[in-house]
Write a structure and sequence with these properties.
The protein is mostly helical. The chain has one domain. It contains seven helices and three strands.
Amino acid sequence: MSLDVPTDVLVAAERGELDDAQFVAVVRDSLPYAWQVIGAAAEDLSERPAAPFGEHEVPPPDEQARGQLLRALASNAIRGALERHFGVVLAFQNCHRVAAFKPEAVDSTIYREFISPRGQVLNQSPELRDC
């Protein structure tokens, strides 16, 4: 899934004048499902300040949605822009489990457990094998 880049944004990028707000708007408009998932994880974190992280654990409804989420989290530029926009550090285990951590939590045990090979293995299930 590629981003839908409006002409004015492309021109700004060609001139070296692309800013984060323009890029984030392109991501929001091009990858609405991914935007919703990451926004939900960030909102979950903000609504539960004592929680170690916010998360979204609902499998994508279809392959297009799954593709959007994978595109957003696999691209360094997109992921970084989303992290800056929402003020979180994202962690991703599979096609449906996205977590939003406070930036200061990156050095925490819970973050290291979430991103560990053990955490990845423990979050697997047969019904998610194809994600």
